[in-house]
Design goal:
Elements (H helix, E strand, L loop, with lengths): L23 E5 L3 E5 L7 H10 L7 E5 L3 H4 L18 H4 L17 H6 L4 H9 L2 H11 L11 H10 L6 E6 L8 H8 L1 H15 L3 E7 L3 H16 L4 E4 L4 E10 L8 H8 L23 E5 H13 L1 H5 L2 E2 L2 E2 L1 E8 L5 E6 L4 H8 L9 E6 L5 E4 L9 H6 L8 E6 L4 H15 L5 H18 L5 H17 L3 H5 L2 H16 L6
The chain binds iron/sulfur cluster (SF4).
Amino acid sequence: QNENHDISLVKTGCIGFCKEEPIVSVSIPGKALVLLRKVHQEDAERVISLALQGDVPSDRVLCKISDWDHITGNLVYGNGFDSIPEYEEIPFFAHQKKVILRDSGLINPEDIDEYIGIGGYFAAFKALTSMEPDAIIDEVKRSGLRGRGGAGFPAGLKWEITKKAPGEEKYIVCNADEGDPGAYMNRNEMESDPHMLLEGMLIGAFAMGVHEGLIYIRAEYPLAIERLMLALDQARSYGLLGKNIFNTGFDFDIRIATGAGAFVCGESTALAASIEGKTGRPRLRPPRLTEKGVFGKPTDLNNVETWCNVPVIIAKGASWYSSIGAKGNTGTKVFSLVGKVDNVGMVEVPLGTSLHSIIYDIGNGGALGREVKAVQTGGPSGGCIPVRLFDTPVDFENLNKVGTMMGSGGLVVMDEDTNMVDIARYFINFASGESCGKCVPCREGLKHMLLILNRIVAGKGTHEDINLLKELSETVQKTSLCGLGQTAPNPVLTTMQYFLEEYDDLISPEA
Ligand code: SF4
Protein backbone atom coordinates (compact mmCIF):
# COMPACT_ATOMS: atom_id res chain seq x y z
CA GLN A 1 0.00 0.00 0.00
CA ASN A 2 1.45 3.34 -1.02
CA GLU A 3 0.53 6.36 1.11
CA ASN A 4 0.01 8.61 -1.93
CA HIS A 5 -1.67 6.12 -4.21
CA ASP A 6 -4.09 3.33 -3.61
CA ILE A 7 -1.95 0.50 -5.02
CA SER A 8 -1.58 -2.90 -3.41
CA LEU A 9 1.16 -5.34 -4.26
CA VAL A 10 -0.26 -8.83 -3.84
CA LYS A 11 1.45 -12.17 -4.23
CA THR A 12 -0.47 -14.69 -6.31
CA GLY A 13 0.19 -18.24 -7.35
CA CYS A 14 1.17 -19.18 -10.88
CA ILE A 15 -1.10 -18.52 -13.86
CA GLY A 16 0.58 -21.39 -15.68
CA PHE A 17 2.28 -19.76 -18.67
CA CYS A 18 5.81 -20.66 -17.58
CA LYS A 19 7.37 -19.56 -20.86
CA GLU A 20 6.30 -15.96 -20.28
CA GLU A 21 7.08 -15.73 -16.57
CA PRO A 22 7.61 -13.61 -14.53
CA ILE A 23 4.05 -12.45 -15.20
CA VAL A 24 2.58 -9.48 -13.34
CA SER A 25 -1.18 -8.90 -13.43
CA VAL A 26 -2.20 -5.27 -13.07
CA SER A 27 -5.76 -4.87 -11.89
CA ILE A 28 -7.20 -1.48 -12.67
CA PRO A 29 -10.70 -1.21 -11.18
CA GLY A 30 -13.13 0.00 -13.78
CA LYS A 31 -10.71 -0.69 -16.60
CA ALA A 32 -9.04 -4.08 -16.95
CA LEU A 33 -6.90 -6.81 -15.54
CA VAL A 34 -3.81 -6.67 -17.74
CA LEU A 35 -1.20 -9.41 -17.74
CA LEU A 36 2.36 -8.26 -18.36
CA ARG A 37 4.93 -10.80 -19.49
CA LYS A 38 8.63 -11.22 -18.66
CA VAL A 39 8.60 -8.42 -16.12
CA HIS A 40 11.87 -7.66 -14.41
CA GLN A 41 12.95 -5.33 -11.64
CA GLU A 42 13.74 -2.49 -14.05
CA ASP A 43 10.12 -2.58 -15.29
CA ALA A 44 8.73 -1.61 -11.87
CA GLU A 45 8.16 2.05 -12.74
CA ARG A 46 6.33 1.17 -15.94
CA VAL A 47 4.14 -1.30 -14.09
CA ILE A 48 3.19 1.40 -11.55
CA SER A 49 2.61 3.85 -14.38
CA LEU A 50 0.15 1.38 -15.92
CA ALA A 51 -1.67 1.07 -12.62
CA LEU A 52 -1.85 4.85 -12.13
CA GLN A 53 -2.31 6.27 -15.63
CA GLY A 54 -3.20 3.38 -17.88
CA ASP A 55 0.15 3.90 -19.57
CA VAL A 56 0.54 0.46 -21.13
CA PRO A 57 4.11 -0.86 -21.74
CA SER A 58 3.23 -2.52 -25.05
CA ASP A 59 6.38 -4.68 -25.24
CA ARG A 60 5.39 -6.33 -21.99
CA VAL A 61 1.66 -6.79 -22.53
CA LEU A 62 0.46 -10.35 -22.79
CA CYS A 63 -3.31 -9.88 -22.64
CA LYS A 64 -6.21 -8.58 -20.58
CA ILE A 65 -8.85 -10.60 -18.81
CA SER A 66 -12.38 -9.44 -19.44
CA ASP A 67 -14.52 -11.89 -17.53
CA TRP A 68 -12.57 -11.78 -14.31
CA ASP A 69 -15.03 -9.55 -12.57
CA HIS A 70 -15.32 -11.12 -9.17
CA ILE A 71 -12.68 -8.84 -7.69
CA THR A 72 -12.45 -5.87 -10.03
CA GLY A 73 -16.18 -5.37 -10.45
CA ASN A 74 -17.74 -4.66 -13.82
CA LEU A 75 -15.04 -3.84 -16.29
CA VAL A 76 -15.23 -0.98 -18.73
CA TYR A 77 -12.78 -0.76 -21.60
CA GLY A 78 -11.39 2.16 -23.49
CA ASN A 79 -8.65 4.74 -23.06
CA GLY A 80 -6.00 2.85 -24.96
CA PHE A 81 -6.88 -0.58 -23.61
CA ASP A 82 -8.82 -1.62 -26.72
CA SER A 83 -5.71 -2.75 -28.57
CA ILE A 84 -4.64 -5.18 -25.86
CA PRO A 85 -5.43 -8.78 -26.84
CA GLU A 86 -8.03 -10.57 -24.81
CA TYR A 87 -7.04 -13.55 -22.65
CA GLU A 88 -9.05 -15.80 -24.98
CA GLU A 89 -7.09 -14.57 -28.00
CA ILE A 90 -3.82 -15.99 -26.66
CA PRO A 91 -3.69 -19.56 -28.04
CA PHE A 92 -2.06 -20.88 -24.88
CA PHE A 93 -5.15 -19.90 -22.86
CA ALA A 94 -7.79 -20.08 -25.62
CA HIS A 95 -7.63 -23.85 -26.02
CA GLN A 96 -7.80 -24.59 -22.31
CA LYS A 97 -10.77 -25.03 -20.03
CA LYS A 98 -9.84 -23.90 -16.57
CA VAL A 99 -11.90 -25.48 -13.83
CA ILE A 100 -9.31 -26.39 -11.20
CA LEU A 101 -6.94 -23.63 -12.21
CA ARG A 102 -9.65 -20.99 -12.71
CA ASP A 103 -8.27 -18.67 -10.03
CA SER A 104 -4.62 -19.73 -10.01
CA GLY A 105 -2.46 -16.71 -10.55
CA LEU A 106 -5.39 -14.37 -9.95
CA ILE A 107 -5.98 -14.61 -6.21
CA ASN A 108 -3.69 -14.34 -3.24
CA PRO A 109 -3.28 -17.90 -1.94
CA GLU A 110 -2.26 -16.55 1.46
CA ASP A 111 -5.52 -14.71 2.03
CA ILE A 112 -8.61 -16.75 2.88
CA ASP A 113 -10.78 -13.66 2.31
CA GLU A 114 -9.90 -13.66 -1.39
CA TYR A 115 -10.94 -17.31 -1.68
CA ILE A 116 -14.17 -16.64 0.17
CA GLY A 117 -14.69 -13.49 -1.92
CA ILE A 118 -14.93 -15.56 -5.10
CA GLY A 119 -17.33 -18.08 -3.62
CA GLY A 120 -14.86 -20.25 -1.73
CA TYR A 121 -16.29 -22.50 1.03
CA PHE A 122 -19.79 -22.01 -0.42
CA ALA A 123 -19.77 -25.66 -1.56
CA ALA A 124 -18.72 -26.83 1.91
CA PHE A 125 -21.47 -24.74 3.49
CA LYS A 126 -24.00 -26.16 1.05
CA ALA A 127 -22.83 -29.73 1.61
CA LEU A 128 -22.68 -29.58 5.41
CA THR A 129 -25.85 -27.60 6.00
CA SER A 130 -28.24 -28.80 3.31
CA MET A 131 -27.12 -32.22 2.02
CA GLU A 132 -27.15 -35.67 3.53
CA PRO A 133 -23.75 -37.41 3.48
CA ASP A 134 -25.06 -40.12 1.15
CA ALA A 135 -26.42 -37.47 -1.21
CA ILE A 136 -22.94 -35.92 -1.42
CA ILE A 137 -21.41 -39.28 -2.26
CA ASP A 138 -24.13 -39.81 -4.84
CA GLU A 139 -23.41 -36.40 -6.39
CA VAL A 140 -19.70 -37.24 -6.69
CA LYS A 141 -20.56 -40.65 -8.18
CA ARG A 142 -22.92 -39.09 -10.72
CA SER A 143 -20.30 -36.50 -11.69
CA GLY A 144 -18.14 -39.38 -12.95
CA LEU A 145 -15.05 -38.01 -11.14
CA ARG A 146 -12.18 -40.51 -11.36
CA GLY A 147 -9.01 -40.40 -9.28
CA ARG A 148 -6.52 -37.98 -10.83
CA GLY A 149 -3.47 -39.67 -9.31
CA GLY A 150 -3.24 -42.01 -12.28
CA ALA A 151 -5.34 -45.10 -11.63
CA GLY A 152 -8.65 -43.44 -12.51
CA PHE A 153 -10.70 -45.28 -9.88
CA PRO A 154 -14.17 -43.69 -9.43
CA ALA A 155 -13.79 -41.29 -6.51
CA GLY A 156 -17.41 -41.48 -5.29
CA LEU A 157 -17.26 -45.27 -5.19
CA LYS A 158 -14.08 -45.18 -3.12
CA TRP A 159 -15.80 -42.79 -0.70
CA GLU A 160 -18.73 -45.15 -0.43
CA ILE A 161 -16.48 -48.16 0.25
CA THR A 162 -14.61 -46.22 2.96
CA LYS A 163 -17.83 -45.06 4.54
CA LYS A 164 -19.22 -48.60 4.64
CA ALA A 165 -16.01 -50.14 6.00
CA PRO A 166 -16.50 -51.36 9.57
CA GLY A 167 -15.11 -49.21 12.38
CA GLU A 168 -15.64 -45.78 13.84
CA GLU A 169 -12.14 -44.40 13.45
CA LYS A 170 -11.23 -43.66 9.83
CA TYR A 171 -8.97 -41.30 7.90
CA ILE A 172 -8.98 -39.37 4.70
CA VAL A 173 -5.61 -38.69 3.14
CA CYS A 174 -4.47 -36.39 0.38
CA ASN A 175 -1.59 -37.76 -1.65
CA ALA A 176 0.58 -34.74 -2.38
CA ASP A 177 3.74 -36.79 -2.93
CA GLU A 178 4.09 -35.72 -6.55
CA GLY A 179 7.33 -37.27 -7.75
CA ASP A 180 7.24 -37.80 -11.52
CA PRO A 181 10.12 -36.02 -13.29
CA GLY A 182 8.65 -33.00 -15.10
CA ALA A 183 5.34 -33.05 -13.20
CA TYR A 184 4.35 -30.13 -10.99
CA MET A 185 0.55 -29.93 -11.30
CA ASN A 186 -0.17 -30.65 -7.64
CA ARG A 187 2.52 -28.27 -6.52
CA ASN A 188 0.90 -25.50 -8.54
CA GLU A 189 -2.56 -26.33 -7.22
CA MET A 190 -1.40 -26.21 -3.60
CA GLU A 191 0.74 -23.11 -3.98
CA SER A 192 -1.88 -21.18 -5.95
CA ASP A 193 -5.18 -22.15 -4.36
CA PRO A 194 -4.64 -24.15 -1.14
CA HIS A 195 -8.13 -23.53 0.26
CA MET A 196 -9.70 -25.38 -2.68
CA LEU A 197 -7.92 -28.55 -1.51
CA LEU A 198 -8.96 -28.03 2.13
CA GLU A 199 -12.56 -27.41 1.07
CA GLY A 200 -12.63 -30.61 -1.01
CA MET A 201 -11.31 -32.60 1.93
CA LEU A 202 -13.82 -31.04 4.32
CA ILE A 203 -16.72 -32.04 2.05
CA GLY A 204 -15.31 -35.56 1.63
CA ALA A 205 -14.79 -35.98 5.37
CA PHE A 206 -18.37 -34.98 6.11
CA ALA A 207 -19.69 -37.35 3.42
CA MET A 208 -17.68 -40.28 4.79
CA GLY A 209 -18.13 -39.41 8.47
CA VAL A 210 -14.40 -38.98 9.02
CA HIS A 211 -12.95 -36.59 11.58
CA GLU A 212 -9.25 -36.58 10.77
CA GLY A 213 -7.53 -35.75 7.51
CA LEU A 214 -3.88 -35.89 6.53
CA ILE A 215 -2.01 -34.27 3.69
CA TYR A 216 1.06 -36.32 2.81
CA ILE A 217 3.39 -33.92 1.04
CA ARG A 218 6.99 -34.17 -0.05
CA ALA A 219 9.43 -32.01 1.91
CA GLU A 220 10.80 -30.72 -1.42
CA TYR A 221 7.70 -28.53 -1.72
CA PRO A 222 8.46 -25.96 1.03
CA LEU A 223 6.30 -23.17 -0.41
CA ALA A 224 3.31 -25.48 -0.81
CA ILE A 225 3.79 -26.66 2.80
CA GLU A 226 4.07 -23.07 4.05
CA ARG A 227 0.90 -22.00 2.22
CA LEU A 228 -1.03 -25.07 3.35
CA MET A 229 -0.03 -24.46 6.97
CA LEU A 230 -1.17 -20.86 6.69
CA ALA A 231 -4.41 -21.92 4.98
CA LEU A 232 -5.06 -24.46 7.76
CA ASP A 233 -4.56 -21.79 10.44
CA GLN A 234 -6.87 -19.40 8.60
CA ALA A 235 -9.55 -22.06 8.08
CA ARG A 236 -9.41 -22.93 11.80
CA SER A 237 -9.69 -19.29 12.82
CA TYR A 238 -12.80 -18.94 10.59
CA GLY A 239 -14.38 -22.06 12.11
CA LEU A 240 -14.05 -23.97 8.83
CA LEU A 241 -11.96 -26.65 10.52
CA GLY A 242 -12.15 -27.82 14.10
CA LYS A 243 -15.21 -28.33 16.26
CA ASN A 244 -18.83 -27.88 15.27
CA ILE A 245 -18.20 -26.64 11.72
CA PHE A 246 -21.07 -24.40 10.44
CA ASN A 247 -22.89 -25.22 13.73
CA THR A 248 -23.65 -28.68 12.38
CA GLY A 249 -21.99 -30.56 15.23
CA PHE A 250 -19.48 -31.99 12.74
CA ASP A 251 -15.82 -31.96 13.83
CA PHE A 252 -12.94 -32.27 11.39
CA ASP A 253 -9.33 -31.19 11.18
CA ILE A 254 -6.39 -31.77 8.88
CA ARG A 255 -2.71 -32.16 9.66
CA ILE A 256 0.31 -32.28 7.42
CA ALA A 257 2.71 -35.21 7.19
CA THR A 258 5.89 -34.64 5.22
CA GLY A 259 7.64 -37.29 3.16
CA ALA A 260 11.33 -37.34 2.38
CA GLY A 261 10.89 -37.47 -1.39
CA ALA A 262 11.04 -41.23 -1.98
CA PHE A 263 9.18 -41.83 -5.23
CA VAL A 264 7.80 -45.16 -4.01
CA CYS A 265 5.97 -43.36 -1.18
CA GLY A 266 3.41 -42.23 -3.76
CA GLU A 267 2.24 -45.88 -3.77
CA SER A 268 -0.70 -46.14 -1.44
CA THR A 269 0.54 -48.78 1.01
CA ALA A 270 4.06 -47.28 1.15
CA LEU A 271 2.49 -43.88 1.77
CA ALA A 272 0.45 -45.25 4.66
CA ALA A 273 3.56 -46.86 6.17
CA SER A 274 5.49 -43.60 5.84
CA ILE A 275 2.72 -41.65 7.61
CA GLU A 276 2.95 -44.17 10.46
CA GLY A 277 6.66 -43.41 10.76
CA LYS A 278 7.77 -46.69 9.21
CA THR A 279 9.99 -47.19 6.17
CA GLY A 280 7.93 -46.35 3.10
CA ARG A 281 7.74 -49.77 1.48
CA PRO A 282 4.75 -51.22 -0.40
CA ARG A 283 2.97 -54.29 0.93
CA LEU A 284 0.79 -56.84 -0.78
CA ARG A 285 -2.82 -55.87 -1.42
CA PRO A 286 -5.47 -56.82 -0.33
CA PRO A 287 -6.23 -55.56 2.18
CA ARG A 288 -6.72 -52.25 0.43
CA LEU A 289 -6.40 -48.93 2.24
CA THR A 290 -10.17 -48.58 2.31
CA GLU A 291 -10.23 -51.64 4.61
CA LYS A 292 -6.92 -51.31 6.44
CA GLY A 293 -5.11 -48.07 5.83
CA VAL A 294 -3.33 -45.54 8.00
CA PHE A 295 -2.77 -46.91 11.55
CA GLY A 296 -4.75 -49.98 10.48
CA LYS A 297 -7.96 -47.96 10.03
CA PRO A 298 -10.12 -47.62 6.88
CA THR A 299 -8.64 -44.82 4.82
CA ASP A 300 -9.74 -42.95 1.73
CA LEU A 301 -6.73 -41.81 -0.30
CA ASN A 302 -7.17 -39.32 -3.12
CA ASN A 303 -4.61 -37.08 -4.74
CA VAL A 304 -4.56 -33.27 -4.67
CA GLU A 305 -6.35 -32.76 -7.96
CA THR A 306 -9.11 -35.24 -7.13
CA TRP A 307 -9.89 -33.36 -3.91
CA CYS A 308 -9.73 -30.02 -5.74
CA ASN A 309 -12.50 -31.16 -8.09
CA VAL A 310 -14.95 -31.74 -5.25
CA PRO A 311 -16.02 -28.15 -4.37
CA VAL A 312 -16.97 -27.29 -7.94
CA ILE A 313 -18.95 -30.54 -8.29
CA ILE A 314 -20.97 -29.70 -5.20
CA ALA A 315 -21.33 -26.02 -6.09
CA LYS A 316 -22.36 -26.51 -9.73
CA GLY A 317 -23.76 -30.03 -9.64
CA ALA A 318 -22.91 -33.42 -11.13
CA SER A 319 -24.74 -32.69 -14.41
CA TRP A 320 -22.69 -29.58 -15.06
CA TYR A 321 -19.46 -31.41 -14.26
CA SER A 322 -20.24 -34.49 -16.34
CA SER A 323 -21.03 -32.30 -19.35
CA ILE A 324 -17.29 -31.55 -19.53
CA GLY A 325 -14.95 -34.13 -21.02
CA ALA A 326 -15.85 -37.45 -22.59
CA LYS A 327 -18.10 -40.38 -21.73
CA GLY A 328 -16.54 -42.29 -18.84
CA ASN A 329 -13.85 -39.60 -18.56
CA THR A 330 -15.62 -36.52 -17.28
CA GLY A 331 -14.18 -33.22 -16.16
CA THR A 332 -10.82 -31.70 -16.91
CA LYS A 333 -7.24 -32.77 -16.33
CA VAL A 334 -4.30 -30.58 -15.45
CA PHE A 335 -1.02 -31.34 -17.20
CA SER A 336 2.46 -29.94 -16.88
CA LEU A 337 3.55 -29.50 -20.48
CA VAL A 338 7.34 -29.57 -20.49
CA GLY A 339 10.35 -30.66 -22.49
CA LYS A 340 11.06 -29.55 -26.04
CA VAL A 341 7.81 -27.71 -26.60
CA ASP A 342 7.47 -24.01 -27.39
CA ASN A 343 4.88 -23.03 -24.77
CA VAL A 344 6.01 -24.73 -21.59
CA GLY A 345 3.43 -24.43 -18.85
CA MET A 346 0.55 -25.64 -16.75
CA VAL A 347 -2.35 -26.73 -18.94
CA GLU A 348 -5.93 -27.73 -18.11
CA VAL A 349 -8.14 -29.33 -20.77
CA PRO A 350 -11.30 -31.45 -20.86
CA LEU A 351 -10.52 -35.17 -20.71
CA GLY A 352 -10.71 -36.57 -24.24
CA THR A 353 -8.77 -33.65 -25.77
CA SER A 354 -6.26 -34.97 -28.29
CA LEU A 355 -2.53 -34.93 -27.65
CA HIS A 356 -2.26 -33.00 -30.92
CA SER A 357 -4.39 -30.17 -29.58
CA ILE A 358 -2.39 -29.97 -26.34
CA ILE A 359 1.00 -30.03 -28.02
CA TYR A 360 0.27 -27.90 -31.08
CA ASP A 361 -2.73 -25.66 -30.29
CA ILE A 362 -1.66 -24.91 -26.73
CA GLY A 363 2.03 -25.81 -26.79
CA ASN A 364 2.65 -24.29 -30.27
CA GLY A 365 4.71 -27.32 -31.35
CA GLY A 366 8.41 -27.87 -30.87
CA ALA A 367 10.68 -25.39 -29.14
CA LEU A 368 12.93 -23.29 -31.41
CA GLY A 369 10.96 -24.46 -34.44
CA ARG A 370 12.17 -28.07 -34.13
CA GLU A 371 9.92 -30.97 -35.18
CA VAL A 372 8.19 -32.81 -32.36
CA LYS A 373 8.91 -36.54 -32.39
CA ALA A 374 7.11 -38.00 -29.39
CA VAL A 375 5.54 -37.28 -26.04
CA GLN A 376 5.95 -39.14 -22.77
CA THR A 377 2.84 -39.33 -20.62
CA GLY A 378 2.55 -40.81 -17.16
CA GLY A 379 6.08 -40.09 -15.94
CA PRO A 380 8.47 -42.99 -15.34
CA SER A 381 5.50 -45.39 -15.36
CA GLY A 382 4.25 -44.18 -18.71
CA GLY A 383 5.29 -44.58 -22.30
CA CYS A 384 6.48 -42.57 -25.29
CA ILE A 385 3.90 -41.97 -27.99
CA PRO A 386 5.02 -41.09 -31.54
CA VAL A 387 3.61 -38.13 -33.45
CA ARG A 388 1.56 -40.38 -35.74
CA LEU A 389 -0.59 -41.32 -32.71
CA PHE A 390 -1.16 -37.74 -31.54
CA ASP A 391 -4.86 -37.98 -32.45
CA THR A 392 -5.19 -40.20 -29.37
CA PRO A 393 -7.68 -38.66 -26.95
CA VAL A 394 -6.14 -38.06 -23.56
CA ASP A 395 -8.22 -40.26 -21.29
CA PHE A 396 -7.55 -43.23 -19.02
CA GLU A 397 -8.48 -45.97 -21.52
CA ASN A 398 -7.14 -44.56 -24.80
CA LEU A 399 -3.70 -43.86 -23.36
CA ASN A 400 -3.56 -47.45 -22.08
CA LYS A 401 -4.42 -48.70 -25.57
CA VAL A 402 -1.29 -47.10 -27.02
CA GLY A 403 0.91 -48.56 -24.28
CA THR A 404 1.12 -45.65 -21.88
CA MET A 405 -1.01 -44.18 -19.11
CA MET A 406 -2.47 -40.95 -17.79
CA GLY A 407 -0.36 -40.96 -14.63
CA SER A 408 -0.72 -37.84 -12.58
CA GLY A 409 -0.32 -35.47 -15.53
CA GLY A 410 3.24 -35.00 -16.74
CA LEU A 411 3.60 -34.49 -20.51
CA VAL A 412 7.24 -34.44 -21.62
CA VAL A 413 7.70 -33.51 -25.28
CA MET A 414 10.64 -34.85 -27.30
CA ASP A 415 11.87 -33.45 -30.59
CA GLU A 416 13.83 -34.68 -33.61
CA ASP A 417 17.12 -34.33 -31.69
CA THR A 418 16.01 -36.62 -28.87
CA ASN A 419 17.43 -40.12 -28.82
CA MET A 420 14.61 -42.37 -27.64
CA VAL A 421 16.95 -45.08 -26.32
CA ASP A 422 18.60 -42.48 -24.13
CA ILE A 423 15.14 -41.44 -22.89
CA ALA A 424 14.35 -45.06 -21.98
CA ARG A 425 17.69 -45.26 -20.18
CA TYR A 426 16.93 -42.06 -18.25
CA PHE A 427 13.64 -43.41 -16.93
CA ILE A 428 15.05 -46.85 -16.06
CA ASN A 429 17.90 -45.14 -14.23
CA PHE A 430 15.30 -43.12 -12.31
CA ALA A 431 13.10 -46.13 -11.49
CA SER A 432 16.08 -48.28 -10.51
CA GLY A 433 17.29 -45.56 -8.13
CA GLU A 434 13.82 -45.27 -6.58
CA SER A 435 13.17 -49.04 -6.23
CA CYS A 436 12.69 -49.84 -2.56
CA GLY A 437 14.46 -53.18 -3.03
CA LYS A 438 11.80 -55.32 -1.42
CA CYS A 439 11.24 -57.65 -4.38
CA VAL A 440 13.83 -59.22 -6.66
CA PRO A 441 12.30 -58.54 -10.12
CA CYS A 442 12.26 -54.80 -9.58
CA ARG A 443 15.44 -54.51 -7.53
CA GLU A 444 17.63 -56.71 -9.74
CA GLY A 445 15.69 -56.60 -13.01
CA LEU A 446 15.85 -52.82 -13.35
CA LYS A 447 19.56 -52.83 -12.57
CA HIS A 448 20.17 -55.32 -15.38
CA MET A 449 17.98 -53.37 -17.75
CA LEU A 450 20.04 -50.28 -16.99
CA LEU A 451 23.31 -52.13 -17.65
CA ILE A 452 22.01 -53.31 -21.02
CA LEU A 453 20.76 -49.84 -21.95
CA ASN A 454 24.11 -48.33 -20.95
CA ARG A 455 25.83 -50.82 -23.24
CA ILE A 456 23.52 -50.06 -26.16
CA VAL A 457 23.78 -46.27 -25.77
CA ALA A 458 27.60 -46.60 -25.62
CA GLY A 459 27.50 -48.42 -28.98
CA LYS A 460 28.64 -51.69 -27.37
CA GLY A 461 25.33 -53.53 -27.43
CA THR A 462 24.25 -56.49 -29.53
CA HIS A 463 20.98 -57.65 -31.09
CA GLU A 464 20.96 -60.25 -28.34
CA ASP A 465 20.90 -57.36 -25.82
CA ILE A 466 17.80 -55.92 -27.45
CA ASN A 467 16.00 -59.27 -27.17
CA LEU A 468 17.12 -59.73 -23.57
CA LEU A 469 16.00 -56.20 -22.70
CA LYS A 470 12.51 -56.93 -24.02
CA GLU A 471 12.33 -60.24 -22.15
CA LEU A 472 13.50 -58.64 -18.90
CA SER A 473 11.02 -55.78 -19.32
CA GLU A 474 8.12 -58.20 -19.61
CA THR A 475 9.32 -60.23 -16.61
CA VAL A 476 9.73 -57.17 -14.37
CA GLN A 477 6.32 -55.92 -15.49
CA LYS A 478 4.58 -59.22 -14.67
CA THR A 479 6.32 -60.20 -11.46
CA SER A 480 7.03 -57.04 -9.47
CA LEU A 481 5.15 -56.49 -6.23
CA CYS A 482 3.92 -52.93 -6.69
CA GLY A 483 3.08 -50.41 -9.35
CA LEU A 484 6.60 -48.97 -9.48
CA GLY A 485 8.14 -52.21 -10.77
CA GLN A 486 5.07 -53.23 -12.76
CA THR A 487 5.11 -50.03 -14.79
CA ALA A 488 8.82 -49.09 -14.82
CA PRO A 489 9.50 -51.02 -18.08
CA ASN A 490 6.86 -49.02 -19.98
CA PRO A 491 9.29 -46.43 -21.39
CA VAL A 492 11.49 -49.27 -22.71
CA LEU A 493 8.60 -51.25 -24.16
CA THR A 494 7.01 -48.26 -25.89
CA THR A 495 10.28 -46.96 -27.32
CA MET A 496 10.94 -50.48 -28.62
CA GLN A 497 7.42 -50.67 -30.05
CA TYR A 498 7.54 -47.30 -31.80
CA PHE A 499 11.24 -46.49 -32.25
CA LEU A 500 12.96 -49.89 -32.64
CA GLU A 501 15.10 -48.52 -35.47
CA GLU A 502 16.81 -46.20 -32.98
CA TYR A 503 17.90 -49.24 -30.94
CA ASP A 504 19.09 -50.99 -34.13
CA ASP A 505 21.00 -47.89 -35.22
CA LEU A 506 23.08 -48.07 -32.05
CA ILE A 507 24.16 -51.68 -32.65
CA SER A 508 27.43 -51.86 -34.54
CA PRO A 509 27.34 -54.01 -37.74
CA GLU A 510 29.98 -56.38 -36.33
CA ALA A 511 27.99 -57.11 -33.17
FE1 SF4 B 1 9.81 -52.15 -3.97
FE2 SF4 B 1 10.06 -52.23 -6.64
FE3 SF4 B 1 9.09 -54.32 -5.36
FE4 SF4 B 1 7.65 -52.05 -5.53
S1 SF4 B 1 8.20 -53.38 -7.22
S2 SF4 B 1 7.95 -53.34 -3.73
S3 SF4 B 1 9.31 -50.54 -5.43
S4 SF4 B 1 11.18 -53.48 -5.14
